């Protein structure tokens, strides 16, 4: 049954999801152009599951008009070796939920370039949404590029949820600034931040002995 039939969107989505598990390529392929965004998102995942999602189709998902489809495409792009530019562009998306997932995805990839790191730094320091700042800080820690350290250090003075991510991200960096910040965070008012800082500081000092 084609996902573009006259069934309701929920039924079409179920058909597409099932297609990904059953290897029904034609059903998943048709779902990519469905009028419903949830169906298109599911079709992306179905084609990825079957190993048939092309770079062009991934890029189409990343530039889709619907946030739900862009989010799903960003998750898929986290484990792809293509569409780096299109994924990076989502770091400035108009939808905060897309920005958050895109930041996570950038942190999962192994091909982060200077422009990606710079955009993540800007995101970590300036974005109004704390979840986006948190995701950006975590991504910078995953990437571990030295250029990301100032933004991670800035995150250590953000709200508690961001500080928890930032202190963990410090594990990817080294130097006197990192040591000084870890010492400071052992006195943080948030228990999780204090515990993480104490553990990282103990590891760092142990390695120096």
Describe the structure using short key phrases.
209 residues, Leucine-rich Repeat Variant, 69% helix, 0% strand, elongated
Topology of helices and strands:
Blueprint lengths: L8 H14 L2 H7 L5 H14 L4 H8 L4 H11 L6 H6 L6 H13 L5 H13 L3 H14 L5 H7 L4 H10 L6 H10 L5 H18 L1
Helix pairs in contact: 1-2, 1-3, 2-3, 3-5, 4-5, 5-7, 7-9, 8-9, 8-10, 9-10, 9-11, 10-11, 11-13, 12-13
| Rg from alpha-carbon coordinates | 20 Å
| Residues in β-strands, percent | under 5%
Low-pLDDT runs: 1-5
The sequence of SSEs as H and E is: HHHHHHHHHHHHH
Query: Globular, elongated, flat, extended or rod-shaped: what is the shape?
Result: elongated
Summarize the structure.
With 209 residues, this protein is mainly α. It has helices at residues 9-22, 25-31, 37-50, 55-62, 67-77, 84-89, 96-108, 114-126, 130-143, 149-155, 160-169, 176-185, 191-208. Among the domains are: 1-53, no CATH class; 122-209, Leucine-rich Repeat Variant, CATH 1.25.10.10.
Structure description:
It is built from 13 helices and no strands. The protein is mainly α and 209 residues long. Among the domains are: 1-53, no CATH class; 122-209, Leucine-rich Repeat Variant. The longest helix has 18 residues, at 191-208. The chain is elongated, with a radius of gyration of 20 Å. Residues 1-5 have low confidence and may be disordered.
